[in-house]
Amino acid sequence: MNDGVITDKEVYEFFLAADRSVYLSFLHELENALQRYSKNPSIIPHRIKGTTPSHSTIHMYMPVIDDVYSGVKTLGFNVNSNLGFVGSINVTDADSGALYGTLEAKQVTGIRTALASCIGLYHQLTKYVGVSTINLTVFGAGLQAFWHIMCSIQLFKGHCEALHVRVLHRSNPMDVEPLMKAVSTEEDAMNVTVEQFLLSNAKAVRECVNSSHVIFGCIPSESPNLHYKDLSEFPTSVEHTYVSLIGSYKINMHECDEDMIKQFQNQGSLIIVDSKEHTPLESGELYDAMISPENLLEIGQLAGTKSPTIKCDNGRTLTLCKIVGLSIMDICVSKKLLEISNTL
Predict the structure, then answer these.
(1) Whole-number Å distance between alpha carbons of 14 and 11
(2) Strands of 99-104's sheet, edge to edge?
(3) Measuring CA to CA, how many Å separate 132 from each of 25, 127, 146, 191, 236?
(4) Which listed residue, 46, 195, 316, 322, has the most CB atoms within 10 A of its CB?
(5) Taking the model in full, what pTM does it have?
(6) What DSSP line would sit under 224-260, residue for residue?
(7) Which InterPro entries does the UniProt record give (predicted)?
(8) Which residues partner with 195 through β-bridges?
């Protein structure tokens, strides 16, 4: 890492080479940041969204004003650029307002989301005691999916003998070579295997979902890819499944079906979210079901509470987490990266 802007490439290389202790230190730091948010949501003011006078580019500014985590994340999107969302994260000193450092936003966004997904999973690791091989299914083959797999590998290290990953993709499979190379070079390497299937292969999708201990949804979709019946109707040897969905960012998007949400409502179990305020407004599943804050449990409230679960007809227990993303996640992870870079 350098003294200027920390680039996406540097962030990518740092986490690709990081061991379990590093991942856990970031996970705990992120949970602390989300606990601060849960206690005082006003530390994240409303974001600013506007379009340039030429109408070519949408800009978003997402600030955090806190005694520990302070700064602003910016994103821009030009439909003609073919670059997707492009942005930066500026971390400031909470006491003086002075600039502490700047990072490119793409890789940090992927990593912080994966870490946030894994906080709930971390609190449930005891549910997998005695399971030698963890079956992990990921909807998506992009950046978010990649980092969800990496975080899971580190999280389960020492808790199981093997991790079997199934990637469900729309058209292009994931490039897993960097992931496999990073895993194989670790001294305490765990046995990791990867299979990839087209999302259009309904039979493969159903079988993957049914046999999963962990499921991550990383595909923006207007129609659900994850169906409750695939988890509940068929016999399974899996006792518990943790599901985290992060693909939605608009009210018309749905990653799981209505039946899954209804089961949590009917059984009086809470759904884990990053924000009781923002998640129902950016998640089609929760919005359509008219989920109220009383039906939700924020990640920042997980510590010291019993993990919320429902019981499926086939005996499996199920936990659901839904994440839309908060700027404090970016500021928190970026600040820690800057602190580490200053020691190198």
Answers:
(1) 5
(2) 48-51, 58-64, 71-77, 85-92, 99-104
(3) 25, 12, 23, 11, 16
(4) 322
(5) 0.96
(6) -SB-HHHHHTS--S--EEEEEE----STT--SB-HHH
(7) NAD(P)-bd_dom_sf, ODC_Mu_crystall, ODC_N
(8) 166
The tens digit of pLDDT for each residue in 160-218 reads: 999 999 999 999 999 999 999 999 887 777 899 999 999 999 999 999 999 999 999 99
Which residue type, as a one-letter code, is found at position 280?
Answer: P
What residues does 133 pair with on adjacent strands?
A: 162
- Whether residue 340 contacts residue 8, with contact meaning beta carbons closer than 8 Å, is answered with no
Neighbouring residues of 126: CB distance < 8 A, sequence distance ≥ 6: none
Which structural domains are found in the chain, ordered by start? 8-108+328-341 (3.30.1780.10), 114-326 (3.40.50.720)
Tell me which residue of 110, 65, 106 sits closest to 89, measured CA to CA.
106
Distance CA 73, CA 93 (A): 15
pLDDT digits (tens, 9 = 90+) for 310-322: 999 999 999 999 9
Question: Which has the closest alpha carbon to 220: 187, 254, 188, 189?
Answer: 254
- Looking at residue 77, its amino acid is F
- Give CA–CA dist 182/278, Å, rounded: 35
Instruction: Fill in the amino acid letter for 121.
Output: L
Tokens 């207007």 map to which residue?
Answer: 222
